[in-house]
Amino acid sequence: MACFLSLTKPTIPLFVSLLLLLLLPLSMGISSSKIRTTLDGPFEPVTVPLPSGFRGLTLDLPDTDPRVQRTVKGFEPEQISVSLSSSHDSVWISWITGEFQIGDNIKPLNPKSVASVVRYGKLRFPLSHRATGYSLVYNQLYPFEGLQNYSSGIIHHVRLTGLKPDTLYYYRCGDPSISAMSNIHYFRTVPASGPRSYPKRIALVGDLGLTYNTTSTVSHLARNNPDLIVLVGDVSYANLYLTNGTGSDCYSCDFSHTPIHETYQPRWDYWGRFMQPVVSKVPLMVVEGNHELEEQAKNMTFMSYSSRFAFPYEESGSSSTFYYSFNVGGIHFIMLGAYIAYEKLLLSISVVLNLTSQSYQQVHAYERSNRDPCGPVYITVGDGGNREKMATAHADEPGNCPDPSTTPDPIMGGFCVSNFTSGPAAGKFCWDRQPDYSAYRESSFGHGILEVKNETHALWTWHRNQDMYKKAGDQIYIVRQPHKCPIRPKVIQTLERRKVIPIT
Ligand SMILES: *[C@@H]1O[C@H](CO)[C@@H](O)[C@H](O)[C@H]1NC(C)=O
Ligand SMILES: *[C@@H]1O[C@H](CO)[C@@H](O)[C@H](O)[C@H]1NC(C)=O
Ligand SMILES: *[C@@H]1O[C@H](CO)[C@@H](O)[C@H](O)[C@H]1NC(C)=O
Ligand SMILES: *[C@@H]1O[C@H](CO)[C@@H](O)[C@H](O)[C@H]1NC(C)=O
Ligand SMILES: *[C@@H]1O[C@H](CO)[C@@H](O)[C@H](O)[C@H]1NC(C)=O
Ligand SMILES: *[C@@H]1O[C@H](CO)[C@@H](O)[C@H](O)[C@H]1NC(C)=O
Ligand SMILES: *[C@@H]1O[C@H](CO)[C@@H](O)[C@H](O)[C@H]1NC(C)=O
Fold first, then answer.
1. 438: Cβ–Cβ under 8 A, 6 or more apart, which residues?
2. What pLDDT is attached to residue 495?
3. Which listed site, 109, 133, 174, 252, has its alpha carbon 20 to 30 Å from 308?
4. What is the CA(143)–ligand 2 centre distance, in A?
5. Angle between helices 212-223 and 266-279 (to 10 degrees)
6. Cβ of 486 below 6 Å from ligand 5
7. Is residue 212 lining ligand 1, measured as CB closer than 6 Å?
8. What are the chain's domains?
9. How many whole angstroms separate alpha carbon 390 and alpha carbon 409?
10. Of 229, 270, 460, 261, which Cα lies nearest the Cα of 367?
11. Residue 312: which of 163, 499, 98 has the closest Cα?
């Protein structure tokens, strides 16, 4: 569901999310001659509908697909991934050993029974460095008759430190004492923090899931050779399944009679296996969405999300896996999930560039906003291919505006949105046309690539699955004007634990 990522200085209130959506035919070809910049705006709102040829079903990969099956033996590592720590000199390597269990009277594996070791180095042979980490097992338990419990394989996280910036490292992970080490993998560290030091390409994707469309998104994304993948929530969609493995395109309608919102946790393992070829090389940074909530016994939530991924939350001074920050060259990322109260937190954030790109991801479609001269550009990277329906209807079309009382937020309480207080829709719940703040929107599966060129220019490109690899669905330079919009770093110490990382 919701989260945003920010290159920069969010002195800004969170974007108001409009939950519903879409369609008005109008089309905008990407001008082949010159890429427009945000300084050319504000632009007339444009809506591009999903072409009718692309309305095929989004089907989940079945458990019989070879890409989701377990191919290792015994306690050999699987689901290997790399994620960043808070700066260039450190990364996390994560993997899983042993088999998950699901059913009645399961007995969790002992996480201490398999060691967490990474051997790594700049040369393939010998891998001269060694690091050790920690391991854990999580359970997803349902104290209700007929529902099956799940206990994960052993999840390992090891942090490598003292790495050189922008450098290729080789690694193997596992437990050498039982001859269960992985093959050799490699990753590249990010550039050192500082101005004029940027990664080439950052991929952004949301609501990924594990459908055939997901496989198309991930292969397009990998072809773009990103240095980093940022996944802004809604990962495996294991919560569209009952514990017996029966799935649905709309959980709330089909399974409304179950005593708790069930999940089928093996879908997470399938996701980890499917993603390994990409994320064992390219660092993946994740922040939670509503599909990661996964309630279980004792009101526990987000267990799979918090257990499976490594986050630099302690390194960045956060007390929760729900928000954290990290540096990639001259870019400071602030990852804010939707499941934590931000009032104090937002005040305590100090930053860097005011050049901005935020993506507030909720709606299953793509949208880019216009902006005030010094304000941020909001980008919704709607849908990476998940099984739920893509949003193709807009609340601002005739007859589509819902009654405010039908939009309660069952998780956080209250209502998701309230009536507009200013602008042409003041006092109303919906606009009667595509809002002026919306520059471009379309229903498509895809991913975005952000290329920060220098301290003032970042190129944003939306890559739709239906297009050829080199073609852009939407493209714009996000331009910062430091002389007109100077940065006045303001550090407010409301949270003692908060570490502020100013980059100059
Ligand atoms: C999703 O994939 C199916 C085939 O698996 C295809 O028919 C459909 O057009 C795809 N949807 C989009 C929006 O790309
Ligand atoms: C699952 O775990 C819960 C909590 O420990 C327990 O109450 C329940 O009986 C277990 N269910 C099965 C099928 O083993
Ligand atoms: C799973 O449970 C649902 C609801 O009880 C049932 O309709 C479905 O057939 C079950 N699926 C399997 C594979 O047993
Ligand atoms: C779980 O949450 C419900 C509803 O908020 C509450 O009534 C219940 O006491 C909680 N149970 C536990 C074990 O905390
Ligand atoms: C940075 O962006 C914020 C958010 O829109 C804006 O209010 C502010 O004027 C910009 N400039 C500075 C120096 O903060
Ligand atoms: C909000 O807007 C709706 C129409 O869009 C209107 O019916 C309702 O009365 C408004 N609520 C308030 C509190 O103004
Ligand atoms: C920053 O990059 C943009 C786009 O590549 C370029 O047009 C501009 O001249 C660059 N600015 C500086 C100061 O290098």
1. 45, 367, 368, 369, 370
2. 40
3. 252
4. 5
5. 20
6. yes
7. yes
8. 3-50+78-394+434-479 (3.60.21.10)
9. 20
10. 460
11. 499
Residue-level pLDDT at 192? 95
What are the pLDDT digits (tens) for 258-301? 999 999 999 999 999 999 999 999 999 999 998 999 999 999 99
Q: What is residue 87's three-state secondary structure?
A: coil
Report which of residues 421 and 210 the model is more confident about.
Answer: 210
Q: Name the closest-CA residue to atom 14, ligand 3.
A: 244
pLDDT above 70 covers a percentage of the chain that reads 84
Residue nearest to atom 7 of ligand 4 (CA): 299
Q: Which atom of ligand 6 is nearest to the CA of 427?
A: 14
pTM for this predicted structure: 0.87
Question: Atom 12 (ligand 2): residue with closest C-alpha?
Answer: 104
The predicted-structure confidence for 119-154, as pLDDT tens digits, reads as follows 999 999 999 999 999 999 999 999 999 999 999 999
Query: Buried (b) or exposed (e) across 53-67, using 16+ Cβ within 10 A?
Result: eeeeebebbeeeeee
At 490 the pLDDT is 55
Q: Which one, of 483, 477, 354, 290, lies nearest residue 11 by Cα?
A: 354
> 447 CA distance to ligand 5 centroid (A)?
27
CA 183, CA 192: separation in Å to the nearest integer? 28
